[in-house]
Amino acid sequence: xxxxxxxxxxxxxxxxxxxxxxxxxIQIGTLEAQQIDILLKGGHVIDPKxxxxxxxDVAIYEGKIVQVATNIPVTNAKKVIxxxxxxxxxxxxxxxxxxFMGNDLDAYIANGPTSVAPDGFTFRAGVTTVVDAGSxxxxxxxxxxxxTIDKSQTRVLALLNIVGTGMVGRYEEQDVSDMNPVMTAHxxxxxxxxxxxxxxxxxxxxxxxQVDRAVEAGTLANVPVMVDFGEHDPPNSLxxxxxxxxxxxxxxxxxxxxxxxxxxxxxxxxxxVKPFIADARKRGIIxxxxxxxxxxxxxxxxxxxxxxxxxxxxxTDLHIQSMNGGxxxxxxxxxxxxxxxxxxxxxxxxxxxxxxxxINRKELGHLSVGTEADVAVFNVRKGDFGFxxxxxxxxxxxxxxxxxxxIRAGKVVWDLNGLSAPAWDEVAxxxxx
Length: 433
Hints:
Blueprint: H1 4-15, H2 18-33, E1 36-47, E2 52-61, E3 64-69, E4 77-82, E5 87-90, E6 92-97, E7 127-137, H3 141-147, E8 155-161, H4 181-191, E9 196-202, H5 209-221, E10 225-228, H6 238-245, E11 251-252, H7 275-283, E12 286-287, H8 298-306, H9 320-323, H10 330-338, H11 344-349, H12 353-358, E13 375-388, E14 394-408, E15 411-415, H13 424-429
Parallel strand pairs: 1-4, 1-5, 6-7, 7-8, 8-9, 9-10, 10-11, 11-12
Antiparallel strand pairs: 1-2, 2-3, 5-13, 13-14, 14-15
């Protein structure tokens, strides 16, 4: 005889078989009914962090990424933007810029006219986040925060200069008495850990003192150090810098600079990458482009790339001298590496997920659901182009990245060809304007 108790229990279990199915249907219905402010439709998504490299749609709601998938329904989208044939990427991160613009006409970069206002030069290149590379020190960082960081749509992070007054001028940057690791670390760790992501040592004429002070501060604050190492006469040893003074995770900028009288190069005079460079990379030294107005040479970059020595991070060293010279903007610098044989995917990684990891801001540089909607849309133009280095020499190329659309925190902040805009005559016909 069948046990009635177990029969009843079995019936109860099977009677509610529909509950999991109903839950799944509710979830599907929720996704389909999800409100979307902006839907980027039909583009080729490149998201290195999430290993996406294919045609997908990107949905944005209330400033956040809410879905990245194929064939997202347009039903509940307030604005659909057709990006078919274009690359959709995370908003670019430029890890080396100077944006402490000010009116001190006697100053160089700190509160001076050589720095630029970020919003004027970021969005048009697909950049949504910049890292000011040591323009200010602990003494004047609050001023930079008030003048630049707090007033910019661009997300502005910073490396704090080991010199207390930052980059006021070359003479001030030699003041060893103003290189205070304790005060520098205190400004980072105790006051602005959400904004200051590292320390900068630059433009020093002497030995390794400045670097060592910066590393001491970096250890106290648990942040990386970026070194601009190139005004020593005679040149200091790069091998010693990489293997004895810097730590794994510290950053060497201006990697492809050529200035043999004061700066040791990574490629020797026979066109060969020096053997210790591979050892430094294995040790964890980060190599940053930092193009600038005087720190990128084809005679270094081309042979280095041919021998497989690619940068970890691609950045501009943006300021008024570089943007009006061979550098121009980050899209142009990425294009240079694409024309030296780097894939579009690797170039995008070098300006998104790679710098996000270096500065330990892993909430940036990707299109994961729930993250702030910083997105760039690029066209890859085909044609005959010329790319110029800081010495006025040219490399010919056939491809150029062009930022069509930039979205910062869910809002369109750059639209080169009106991708997001309705046709004027349709609007007029509808009587709305």
